[in-house]
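To: structure subgroup
Subject: Chain for Friday's discussion

All,

I'm putting the inputs and outputs inline so they're searchable in the archive.
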Amino acid sequence: FPARAIGNGSLAEPYLDALFLEMRMCAELVQNLRPRAVYVGGGTPTALTGGQLERLMGEIRALFPGAAELTVEAGRPDTITREKLRAISAATRISVNPQSFSDETLARIGRAHTAQDTLRGFSLARDMGFSHINMDLIAALPGEGPEDFYASLEAAAELSPESVTVHTLAVKRASRLHEQGYVQ
């Protein structure tokens, strides 16, 4: 879910209630199977509070025990804190998603973080013992040319993440780019 969908936080608890219900139904469907991997993301789970993330991780461990891989999208670097990383410490892989290392591009696309936030979040995750960190970059962001994308690739490589995922730009209905009428 988009982080801004929880607004001032008042929607987080109803969201978690619905999510936990859905997770219980999924666990019932796969009760005779052992999931190899669990992925928590498709948005910004770290927009939740540390306590909410702890509850989420506890529910995952209870419903899907023994999964060999647990990936948590730490998402926007400006939402990464020591408390939240502690809450998701059972993850075998996290994703810190700069999208770009250009502050101008990040502002243009409506991201609330800076390149410095990415460096801080990545460093904090490493310091706290996360041994597999993925980074997401987006190619063809508005106003960026190949040299800008290459600079972001180089910046990510300097951090030595275990993996880098490159996406092409997809303008989603709830995005600021869509609201601004950006056409690909």
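Points worth raising on Friday:
The mean pLDDT is 90.
The beta strands are 37-40, 69-75, 93-99, 133-139, 163-168.

D.
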